[in-house]
Amino acid sequence: MLHYLSLKDIDSLPNWVQEARSLKPNPKLYKDLGKDKTLGLLFFNNSLRTRLSTQKAAMNLGMDVIVMNFGSEGWALEYGDGTIMDQGSSEHVKEAALVISQYCDIIGIRAFASLTNKEEDESEIVLESFKKYATVPILNMESSVGHPLQALADAITLAENNTKSKPKIVLSWAPHPRALPHAVANSFVEMMQRQEADFVITHPKGYELSEKITGGCTIEYDQKKALEDADFVYVKNWSSYRDYGKVTNKDTNWTIDLKKLGQAKFMHCLPVRRNVIVADEVLDSAQSLVIEQANNRTYAAQIVLKKILESLS
Ligand code: CP
Predict the structure, then answer these.
(1) Does pTM surpass 0.95?
(2) Does ligand 1 have an atom closer than 6 angstroms to the CB of 45?
(3) Looking at the predicted complex, does its ipTM rise above 0.95?
(4) Which residues does the UniProt record annotate as the domain Aspartate/ornithine carbamoyltransferase carbamoyl-P binding (predicted)?
């Protein structure tokens, strides 16, 4: 039984990217694989792309899909062992995971970081609890620490647009008014560590990601220098990791415009705040790959579901 919790669950990134790309001309080729199988999608947080692309991918594989906005419609779950449940939680994850396992053959979970408790976030308490107590495979649809479906879609998009043997790829922080998690940036870094590329991360001082993720990567605090001769610029905001979950910088000098982008292709996972993260002129230009990235979410989800379904048979 294969779970998809992080990029570590991919045995060969180039092979998975190639297989995902090969699905595109005939997405329903494996429509019998998921026959009589049910995918349950549990959302503890909002979504557009993840919800619709994962549902579409499952439908392409012939699966039935049930979706629950767990964060707003489910009982508040308890995760602690031996807790006297006389406070806010109504149901323990033990029962919830076992019950849902009876209804679904695969369970997808979206549960963002709290950004208030680093230790608890890094323990991936929601994802790991479902993995522990469910009897079916678990699919990470963005957890506290990672967004491996997004990173796989980004790898597909890079493969489709890259023309060089060793492109220069820059991950740039950009400002945002709210505190955002580190998951997308983390998984992008982990994906880049599996690529042949000149990879550079740029952000203001104090916005270093976890060293457990970025160990060995080049970090350049001067954004202009980092962007020189870039082929791809992946832009993302994240809150401070050191001053955990805090917004300590909203410097709009880090916003990406066409002058900064140069000849590079622009990437972002979406949703994106126009003229905060990136100027209209970039998103509306032919250099933007954001719509392609969103399209590739379907094929990333489909190859992952295909692998999981194959592991069940
Ligand atoms: N990129 C991404 O995961 O989009 P959603 O949050 O809309 O699912």
Answers:
(1) yes
(2) no
(3) yes
(4) 3-160
